[in-house]
Each structure stands twice: as structure tokens, then as C-alpha cells.
Amino acid sequence: MTLPSGESIPVLGQGTWGWGEDPGRRGDEVAALHAGLELGMTLVDTAEMYADGGAEEVVGEALAGRRDEAFVVSKVLPSHASRSGTIAACERSLKRLGTDRIDLYLLHWQGRYPLQDTVAAFHQLVEDGKIRYWGVSNFDHRALAELQDVPGSSGLATDQVLYNLSRRGPEYDLLPWCK
To answer: Which residues are catalytic?
Structure first.
């Protein structure tokens, strides 16, 4: 897909939801990210929420020495999405990811903080070079309409929507030959 900036990014990427929860799986998780990069899956999606930052640490380990090979997406929790909270959350994520920038930083879903505060923080983070683009995740039509009225919302890069293969059973597995 093409972002409003004109930059093209993959539509599908490697997700890390559920990663970083079991130290015994960390090596496999890092290896999976490496394999994905080798196969051209360069978008890597994570969030501060996943394993309380553990997934971001896995991504940081996997991208050590390879940061420029990936387009990194992370998310701020709505409970951290005040102006100062968003900036602090981003700085924690940068540290866990072991990088100086996040390519796309998203508000994970709409919460109690005014959207104008979160958007102002996103603009500050872009200005400071800590994020390249910002967007939202899991916003419905109503929330997007509300966001459209916020000053500075024209900088919105995307609304990321959930689309993944569930671990719930074979009826969700599109690639049964990979078992």
C-alpha cells in the first residue's frame, strides 16, 4: 500500500501478538522474524501491550544489526495516550526495540484521552525524529470521523485493522501443508 507520503509499505507483515510471553520460545520467535525477513516479509508489527513490552524486546533482538531491513510498527496503549504519556510510552518502546525510530506508531484503539492530545504527541514525536509516521488501530467509522475533526489529523497515515490467522484451530489455518 502507499502511505499519504508516497512511500510504499507491505500490506501484510509479521505480527508479534502473543510473543515475548514465554522465555523458552524466544529463540524460535527471533528465528521466525529472521526467516520472515529473508522471505521478504519486511513489515514487523508489535505493541507495548504485547507481553508488557516483551514482544518489542523480541523484535529488538531480531533486528539487532538489521534495523534498516524492516518497517517497524508499534502501538501506544489508550491508557498511555495523553500528550506526555504517548511520548513517554514511545521512548520506552524505542528502548525495548533497541532503535532510534519507529516507522509507524499507532494509537492501539480509542480511549479516554482526547484525540487532540494524542495527535499533538504524535506530531511532536515526528518532529523529534522518534517516529516517521503515525496512525490509529482498530478505529471504526465513528472514531475515524471524530479523528477527522482534530487539528493535525491530516497527518494520519493509516487505520490498521486486525487480520490474522488465529491459533484457535485448523478451520482458521489457510496453509494446512505447513503443519
So the answer is: 50
